[in-house]
Amino acid sequence: MKNELICIVCPMGCRLKIEGTPEDPVISGNKCKRGIVYAKEELTNPTRMICSTVKIKGGIHKVVPVKTDRAIPEKYKFEVMKLINRVELTSPVKMGDIVLENIFDTGVNIVVTRNM
Amino acid sequence: MEKSEYDVVVIGGGPAGLAAAVEARENGISRVLIIERDVEPGGILQQCIHNGFGLFEFSEELTGPEYAQKFINMARKDEIEIMLDTIVTSINSSKEITVMNTEGKKEILAKSVILAMGCRERTRGAISIPGERPAGVFTAGTAQRYINIEGYMVGKKVVILGSGDIGMIMARRIVLEGGEVKAVVARSSFPKGLTRNVVQCLDHYDIPLLLSHNIVEIKGKERVESVVIAETDMKKQVIPGTEKEYECDTVLLSVGLIPENELSKQAGIELDRKTGGPVVNESMETSVEGIFACGNVVHVHDLVDFVTAESRRAGKNAASYVRGEFKRNGDYVTFSTSGGLTYAVPHKFRYSNLPDKLDIFMRVDMVYNDSLIILENRGKEIARFRERHLTPGEMIKITVKKEMFEKTEGVININLVSEKESGNEK
């Protein structure tokens, strides 16, 4: 288990000290309650937004930006990239169009983030 | 030569220009033109494909292209004319603008101009790294454009110089695309970018951040082959004997941004040496009447949301200028800064022109904890703000009610003091 985390809930960037067990972590160094919530989430179920690009035919550029429409479990971050890099779209696409649905059964979709 | 006339001409179609144009239009101005040198509007946001934009403006976390798309959609809905792939070659204080595009040269006459040209990156030349001149040295923003817009990977083994936000964001992007980032190297003892980027872009991807280090040599004939990195002391000077060689094929530079003001200079606009941008009043008007400025051309922001807010003010006031309603009653009160605050924007105000609340933006020269920002005029304190944590990477915004400035005159000094030293007597 990590023994230090920097809280990113606000710009203060509190250095959180993590002690105890993974099931029952003891967190200190936080200047407000939100630090505890952040640390527990980060220790038990870290999630990440993944933003990337996919190839597109017939658009103004050769690639179009996409993102996960919600944060996905951290462990999938490189797997998501593999999926994304296999996709090729054809223009026109619109912001919000779903490119890949329910990836890894997480309920998270990959969506286009601009019109092209 | 053909000379078209507009009420408001906005130079630059990035987030600042789009917000200013939309605001001018929505304040009743019909002939609004945006001039943009790229082939599409949106500016740098189009290549900032990561999320983290819009928390203040839209209360949701958007990517750069999404933030841009929302404003492009507003501009389209308002039927604002956007001249793309067009560069402004000259502008004067009479608001005569010369532009060039594939159709040739055109003259444009504006009643009011809004400068929204943004900023550009400092390059290798600006920081003088010794060594050879191989391919593979890019500014971080150029690399970002290659990867996110052109779909072209810049290298496999990368060293990034500078701990600015773009550099850290590119470090993560390169790792996600299968590259390896050997290190992010920064001369300063603290990261220059936002803390959340240190965590989300570097820590989460196990990318080493070497603070108090510098690249002392770039090696390679055709392509970058390695860099030599050394530790630096408190004065940012290299400590001899600490040199280490890192094998890499690419070096990215994230070493600062400079407001792009060649056109402002042509128009005879007064610039501030500290910000590198025009001196502006409470209405975002420059020293030339009727020429306004907003966004990164004025001072480099770290949040686009603040650019939008500032640009709306410019757009709204340009509209009131065109309608002949812009007032110039009373003398200016100017801001000065001290105690580690490097600048304040706006630079000055006329009391009668103030909105109900005035946002003042500032930066500090180093990290300060538990400090007070105190505004003083003629020996009298007019407002104070407690700040728990200040760092050069994060712009400070304070909001002061109009009535606090009543009866102020001359210079208002904005001072930064440690909370302990101040005795906290008030």
Largest sheet report of chain A: 5 strands, mixed
From the alpha carbons, calculate the radius of gyration of chain B and give it in angstroms: 23 Å
Give the class of chain A from helix and strand content and strand pairing.
alpha+beta
pLDDT average of chain A, as an integer? 91
Q: Specify the structural class of chain B.
A: alpha/beta
The ordered string of helix (H) and strand (E) elements of chain A is EEEHEEEEHEEE
Helix content of chain B: 10-25%
Give structural notes.
The complex is a heterodimer of chains A (116) and B (426). The longest helix of chain A has 11 residues, at 34-44. Chain A has helices spanning 34-44, 77-86, and strands spanning 4-6, 15-20, 25-28, 47-48, 51-57, 63-68, 72-73, 88-90, 98-103, 108-112. In chain A, 31% of the residues are buried. With 116 residues, chain A is an alpha+beta fold. By secondary structure, chain B is α/β, with parallel strands linked by helices. In chain B, helix 1 runs parallel beside helix 8. At the A-B interface, strand 5, strand 6 and helix 2 of A face strand 4, helix 2, helix 4 and helix 6 of B.
List its traits.
heterodimer, A: 116 residues, alpha+beta, three-stranded antiparallel β-sheet, 2 helices, 10 strands, B: 426 residues, alpha/beta, seven-stranded mixed β-sheet, five-stranded parallel β-sheet
What's the gist of this structure?
The complex is a heterodimer of chains A (116) and B (426). Chain A is of the alpha+beta class. Helices cover 18% and strands 38% of the residues of chain A.
Write the layout of secondary structure elements.
The complex is a heterodimer of chains A (116) and B (426).
Chain A: E1 4-6, E2 15-20, E3 25-28, H1 34-44, E4 47-48, E5 51-57, E6 63-68, E7 72-73, H2 77-86, E8 88-90, E9 98-103, E10 108-112
Parallel strand pairs in A: 5-8
Antiparallel strand pairs in A: 1-2, 2-3, 4-7, 5-6, 6-10, 9-10
Chain B: E1 3-11, H1 15-26, E2 32-35, E3 51-53, E4 62-63, H2 64-77, E5 81-83, E6 87-91, E7 96-101, E8 104-115, E9 119-121, H3 124-127, E10 137-139, H4 140-150, E11 157-161, H5 165-176, E12 180-185, H6 195-202, E13 209-210, E14 213-219, E15 226-231, E16 244-247, E17 250-253, E18 257-259, H7 262-266, E19 291-293, H8 304-322, E20 332-338, E21 341-345, E22 348-350, E23 357-364, E24 368-377, E25 380-390, E26 396-401, E27 411-418
Parallel strand pairs in B: 1-2, 1-8, 2-5, 8-19, 10-17, 11-12, 11-17, 12-13, 20-27
Antiparallel strand pairs in B: 3-4, 6-7, 7-8, 9-18, 14-15, 15-16, 20-22, 21-23, 23-26, 24-25, 24-27
